[in-house]
Amino acid sequence: MGGRWDLFRLLTALAILWTLVLIAVGAYVRLSNAGLSCPGWPACYGHLVVPTQGAALHRADQLHPGRPLRPVQAFKEMFHRYLAGGFGLVILIMAGLSVSGRRRHEPGPRRLSWIILGLVILQALLGMWTVTLELEPIVVVGHLLGAFLIWDCLLILWARDTMTFRWRGEVASSWGRRIGLLALSFLVIQIFLGAWTSTHYAWVGCPDFPTCLGTWWPRHLEYGRAFVLWNRLGVDYQGGTLPLRARAAIYFLHRIGALVVFVTMIGWTAALWVHSRRGSLRMMSAVVAGLTVLQVAIGISMATIGMPRWLAVGHTFFAALLLGAATLLVYALWTPPNPSR
What we know:
By secondary structure, the chain is an all-alpha fold. It has helices spanning 2-31, 54-63, 71-98, 107-132, 137-162, 171-199, 223-226, 244-275, 279-305, 309-334. The chain has 2 domains: 1-162, no CATH class; 166-341, no CATH class. 70% of the residues lie in helices and 0% in strands. Helix 5 (137-162) packs antiparallel against helix 6 (171-199) and helix 9 (279-305) runs antiparallel to helix 10.
């Protein structure tokens, strides 16, 4: 029984790291314009391994004549699919372990394990629709947000088993819980805006910084066209399809959101630091504040020096770290002490 318990914890830690890798690799694939390099799903041009030989390449090109096979790009996409398949297997094993042995007497972790499995199945469907609907923006955004949600759920699952929280009686935690929820809500909205910016390649709408289109508050931006959640089918959205002022509207709101998140997060964590008596609460507050500053610094760098791929991938990666750290801090503030630990 203890062995299964230890295996469950080990797989939880592995899944947490695996999710981060998947988020980073997914961002790299998207930013490399490789998201549609394998138009079929789950196979690539009818193959589970990217074809490289002459005859196989010819057959692949005949299968999709309007989209010739580019092996290097296809390898990127298939590597992401292989990673996702392995991750799904780990989550399936975790769900099985959660209903055996000691886990049967702990409904919280068991229920959360199966919720995560359900999210992974939905994530696989979103991955398929990302390809079959040719990067429909709302599907791509849902796919990214789904990965972030799985990441958060895994962190909470790990925290339930390994962390002891004794902060709820803190003077700071009484108001810190509510402000934390507000800050976390702003962060989730900002992540959506960032994903919407990425899927529409909207950073080209405001090429200057800190101004946008030469002014601090640009007028005549097309907000209505910028946030149409479902567009017509049969359109390839790689590279973006919106006009400049609609893209500028998306990116401008993303910049405003960054300012709101920065002020809220720094104010919240600074207040927790000042009023807290516990070193562990101070440390987590400092981590959230540090990640907030780093994320804003990366965003400013991207706005000033362009959009180098490595920096854009880092922006997505550290967004996941910031969301995870903020979620753990909010979760800790709302969790009563466990006297059994």
